[in-house]
Amino acid sequence: MNAGVIVVGAGPVGLMLAGELRLGGVDVVVYDKLPAPSGESRALGFTRRVAEVFEQRGLLSRLGELTQGRQGHFGGVRIDLGRLDESHHGVLGLPQSRTEEMLAGWLAELGVPVRRGYEAVEVRQTGQDVTVVFDGPQGRHEATAGYLVGCDGPQSTVRTATGFETTGWPATRGMYMADITGVELRQRPIGERVPGGNMVLATDLGDGYYRVLIHDRSLRPRPDSEPLTFPEVADAWQRMTGESIHAARARWTCAFSNAARLVTEYRRGRVLLAGDAAHDTPPLAGWGLSVGIQDAVNLGWKLAAVVGGRAPESLLDTYHTERHPLGQQLLRNTHAASTLYLTGDELEPLRGVLRELVEHRDAAGHLAGMVSGLGIRYDLGDGRHPLLGRRMPPDRELVRSDGSRTRVAELLHAGRGVFVDTGHAVEPDGSGTTAGAVAGWSDRVDVVTGDWVQDGPGDPAYAALGSVLIRPDGYLAWVAPDGGDLTEALDRWFGAARSALPAEPAAVS
């Protein structure tokens, strides 16, 4: 079958991307090699920024009651998040399976098909389209689309078949993870250092289950072909803690390593990568999942605009320029945090220096911003405003011209751009009207008039905001004053004005 976009991989990243594409009007199909969702807990939550991303689409409440992390830390060095201007607390204890189930329900409402039991085995790319060959339930199956996005995890077939190059480091040690029941364990929610550069973690998942994680320097990297048994996990746990969990039952076990890699480019022609297919790191506080979800939200609206003929193909280049540096930061931060935590007493002087640094509010805010994702700032133009390229907090309230109140999150539910008009003139000399400036993009950008509510906690940098242009992913593309030229920002991020578009954009095969 032909589609605008094929997404390979029905994990959280692939599902989120497919939803974003559908909001943008794209015909998208998701393929996954598993015949059914695995149901495995895997990543137990996500960062504050991903919670905001879900809220921007009206999805966060679908996850039910959530537990926010009470403690911030980097490599075991605690950060007092309560001293910061806004909440950096992430979501903890939420099994990845619940996140996948929520996103799958969203896709069903949007009418996006998810085809399971299809394993990608070959990719053929031309100048006009890309074809994927699958081994499916009825044998070989081919699907063609304008673009292909690989969200198929660390062992990505799409990445390998398309020839993406990677950098990183090989595995030097193994690690074990399991979800168990039938025992009671002392909580170690952010981990507990064991002499010799080792660590154990235990956190309550509810319903009598615990997640245990074991970093033991004596463990060697394990081949994928060698399944991990629970007795091996129990033996390692007892060796590290002196506690026996041999009487427990495991519903899931996993062996992984400290290997990490990052693709050198996020796009090759009509093939793009997102999530673990682009950046593979050891599991650490849900960072990999969180960065992957943000990949999907950064890419989705851009790819939809290109497929729909509303923006030039060059818009896709900004996916790499914006997200690849954050992939590099992910590898660096994962390596730094792991080194801090999983090195012996010889690194204690460095930990002591970091503890002193995070007592300073600015240093704590910078480190917390990296961990939470709230510190991201994209290079979005030549404007001098300090908030240009930063995210717009979704809980910020606006009083509309008719007196009603709304939140930024609600304005972004449809996945469109939003222009908030607070009456600031568009031109430096005070002339011009915002309504006239944005009129040519009314099919892609919603205009809302009103004034910001100034009360409530939050980053004081947002207190003096006037008119703003918000991208569909929630980042500020233009800010008054000193945010650059509004027309240039609209043209850069949303394509040519409607009067300049061709009457019939070329269809994607």
Describe the overall structure.
- The chain is α+β, with helices and mostly antiparallel strands and 509 residues long.
- 28% of the residues lie in helices and 27% in strands.
- Strands 1, 2, 8, 9, 10, 11, 19 and 20 form an eight-stranded mixed beta sheet that branches. A six-stranded mixed beta sheet has the order 23-22-25-24-26-27.
- Strand 1, helix 1 and strand 2 form a beta-alpha-beta unit.
- The termini are close together.
- The C terminus is likely disordered.
Summarize the helices and strands and which ones pair or pack.
Blueprint: E1 2-8, H1 12-23, E2 28-32, E3 45-46, H2 48-56, E4 67-68, E5 72-74, E6 77-79, E7 91-92, H3 96-110, E8 114-116, E9 119-125, E10 130-136, E11 139-150, H4 157-162, E12 166-169, E13 174-181, E14 188-194, E15 198-206, E16 209-215, H5 230-241, E17 249-257, E18 260-263, E19 267-268, E20 271-273, E21 279-280, H6 287-307, H7 317-341, H8 348-357, H9 361-372, E22 397-400, E23 405-407, H10 408-411, E24 417-421, H11 434-438, E25 445-452, E26 468-470, E27 476-479, H12 486-494
Parallel strand pairs: 1-2, 1-11, 2-8, 11-20, 24-25
Antiparallel strand pairs: 3-7, 4-7, 5-6, 9-10, 10-11, 12-18, 13-16, 13-17, 14-15, 15-16, 18-21, 19-20, 22-23, 22-25, 24-26, 26-27
Helix pairs in contact: 1-3, 1-6, 6-7
